[in-house]
Amino acid sequence: MELRTATAADWPGIWPFLREIVDAGETYTWPRDVTEDDARRRWLVGPPGRTVVAVDPDGTVLGSAKLVPNQEGPGDHVANAGFMVAPAAAGRGVGRALGAYVLDLARAEGYRAMQFNAVVASNTRAVALWRSLGFDVVGRVPEGFRHPHLGLVDLLVMYRRLG
Ligand SMILES: CC(C)(COP(=O)(O)OP(=O)(O)OC[C@H]1O[C@@H](n2cnc3c(N)ncnc32)[C@H](O)[C@@H]1OP(=O)(O)O)[C@@H](O)C(=O)NCCC(=O)NCCS
Predict the structure, then answer these.
(1) Residue 99 lies inside a defined structural domain of this protein
(2) Gap from CA of 26 to ligand 1 centroid (Å)
(3) Taking residues 117-139, what's their average pLDDT?
(4) Owning domain of residue 79
(5) Whose CA is nearest to atom 41 of ligand 1?
(6) Which end of the chain, N or C, is surrounded by fewer C-beta atoms within 10 Å?
(7) Of 109, 5, 126, whose CA–CA distance to 54 is shortest?
């Protein structure tokens, strides 16, 4: 698996699994019926943001991540990131590899810390992964997310320093 900066040519490989994940409505605070244009604008971010992909030797995009400042101005030393792994490739270490890669990238770009604003508390795989990569839960928004099967669940704010 290769990890590298995404290009516009990667979008057709990202969109099918991004749409599947967003449409499921279980993990992202995006409109579930997001259009392809809106999704591309949200995911293929311009500078200072960065989008990366994990690609199979045969060229299949297995997952993707984006790294952006979490705030502007005096808050832009804290990074934010988002991750999506194709459901067909889940549980094979792609998310962990993307997480480690994005943490290194954030350090290299001079960020001092990374914050996730809205980790759905029922997303146990993601919460376990972020904890194992050094993140702590620093906040909890009670019933901040309407899960399609579980109803109202909490949103977690997760944070770790870099460096
Ligand atoms: C969360 C996500 C990025 C994880 O990616 P992944 O490639 O499946 O994860 P990995 O294979 O690297 O596994 C990471 C950890 O998840 C956990 N995990 C893996 N498979 C699991 C399973 N079937 N059930 C529960 N936990 C599991 C393990 O703790 C694993 O750690 P390990 O490396 O010590 O075994 C991916 O499931 C995803 O894109 N989900 C939908 C979108 C999303 O939730 N994004 C994150 C929003 S905060």
Answers:
(1) yes
(2) 14
(3) 98
(4) 2-115
(5) 84
(6) C
(7) 5
CATH number of the domain enclosing 21: 3.40.630.30
Is 28 inside any structural domain? yes
Q: Which residues touch 26 (CB under 8 Å, ≥6 apart)? A: 120, 122, 123, 147, 148, 149
Measured from the Cα of 126, ligand 1's closest atom is: 1
Query: Which pair of structure tokens corresponds to residue 145?
Result: 């997310």
Give CA separation, 30 vs 23, 41, 81, 136, 145, in Å.
Answer: 9, 13, 14, 23, 11
Q: What pLDDT is recorded for position 7?
A: 96
- Full-model pTM: 0.96
> What whole-number distance in Å separates Cα of residue 124 and Cα of residue 103?
20
| Residue 140 reports pLDDT greater than 90 | yes
Query: pLDDT at residue 163 above 80?
Result: no
Residue 56 DSSP one-character state: -
Tens digit of pLDDT for each residue in 6-44? Answer: 999 999 999 999 999 999 999 999 999 999 999 999 999
Mutate to test the pocket of ligand 1, among 28, 101, 129 (most ligand atoms within 8 A of CB): 129
